[in-house]
């Protein structure tokens, strides 16, 4: 299925929100599913927009139009289209988002931390890594990703279509997707996403059969080395707030808290007119 074109106003709205909030209003998967026609765009003019599907949505209000009730109106429009349990991400954990969730019957169920760290001026450049080759490595990457993130609700479900969509993004660079080989097989990978001068550790995954061998640290060091070679000075990553082993690793490499994303769930119908 060919990718659907995004309306110009949506990309402009995303950019204004990113400039104001310091992070994008929609995650990568939401945009991928919208581009594939799996989610719809619900909007109020050009000031407020949601990317929504039957079970999950995300919304944003133009910074210049906030405080006018547009978020409440847009949320009501989204909820009128779907029944049953629905999930929503609030990127940034803003007080306005918490208040809106409380008023409309949503409860917080997941917390995702964005961490940042300066890219070290020097450091180890681990051996045994090579760049991803889309022609030969796609199946290996997908299999390893599914094993490494078997219990992750989004990342572990990445399909070939998802991978192809990410490779079609302007930020994709095969040399930023590093595969770590051990004993003749791929034991882990570090996928970097460089945008607006920030190098995001998009995904860091280790084969469960190789866990406990310090490969997570090797992959982070490899990512730093690649960012350093590209002249990137700031790095970021996202990690579940309850993933204590990953948090220990990342904090040991200099990462500190930057922002918080919260996923909300509405299990009961909203009481109209309240």
In a few lines, what is going on in this structure?
This protein is α+β, with helices and mostly antiparallel strands and 274 residues long. Helices cover 32% and strands 30% of the residues.
Can you give keywords for this protein?
2 domains, alpha+beta, disordered C terminus, Aminopeptidase, 11-stranded mixed β-sheet
The total of helices stands at 8
Task: Give the mean pLDDT.
Answer: 92
CATH architecture descriptor text of the largest domain: 3-Layer(aba) Sandwich
The domain count comes to: 2
Shape: globular
Unreliable stretches (pLDDT < 50, length at least 5) are: 270-274
Helical residue percent band: 25-40%
Radius of gyration: 19 Å
Measured distance between first and last alpha carbons: 42 Å
The CATH class of the largest domain is Alpha Beta
SSE blueprint and pairings:
Elements: H1 8-21, H2 28-35, E1 40-44, E2 48-52, E3 56-61, H3 70-79, E4 86-91, H4 95-103, E5 107-118, E6 129-131, H5 134-148, H6 160-167, E7 177-182, E8 185-195, E9 198-206, H7 215-229, E10 234-240, H8 244-252, E11 256-266
Parallel strand pairs: 3-4, 9-10
Antiparallel strand pairs: 1-2, 2-3, 4-11, 5-10, 5-11, 6-7, 7-8, 8-9
């Amino acid at each position: 299925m060919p990718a659907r074109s995004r309306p110009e106003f949506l990309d402009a709205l995303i950019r204004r929100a990113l400039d104001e909030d310091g992070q994008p209003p929609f995650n990568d998967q939401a945009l991928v599913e919208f581009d594939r026609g799996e989610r719809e765009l619900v909007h109020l003019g050009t000031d407020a927009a949601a990317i929504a599907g039957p079970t999950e949505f995300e919304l944003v209000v133009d910074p210049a139009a906030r405080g006018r009730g547009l978020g409440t109106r847009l949320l009501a429009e989204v909820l009128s289209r779907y029944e049953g349990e629905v999930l929503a991400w609030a990127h940034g954990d803003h007080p306005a988002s918490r208040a809106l969730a409380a008023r409309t019957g949503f409860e917080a169920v997941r917390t995702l931390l964005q961490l940042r760290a300066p890219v070290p001026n020097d450091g180890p450049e681990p051996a045994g890594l090579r760049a991803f080759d889309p022609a030969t490595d796609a199946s290996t990457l997908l299999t390893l990703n599914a094993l490494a993130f078997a219990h992750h609700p989004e990342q572990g479900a990445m399909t070939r279509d998802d991978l192809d969509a990410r490779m079609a993004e302007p930020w994709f660079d095969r040399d930023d997707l590093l595969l770590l080989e051990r004993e003749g097989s791929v034991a882990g990978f570090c996928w970097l996403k460089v945008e607006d001068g920030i190098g995001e550790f998009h995904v860091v995954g280790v084969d469960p059969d190789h866990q406990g061998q310090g490969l997570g640290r090797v992959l982070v060091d490899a990512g730093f080395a690649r960012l350093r070679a590209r002249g990137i000075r700031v790095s970021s990553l996202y990690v579940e707030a309850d993933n204590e082993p990953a948090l220990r690793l990342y904090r040991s490499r200099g990462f500190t808290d930057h922002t918080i994303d919260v996923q909300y769930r509405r299990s009961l119908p909203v009481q109209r007119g309240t």
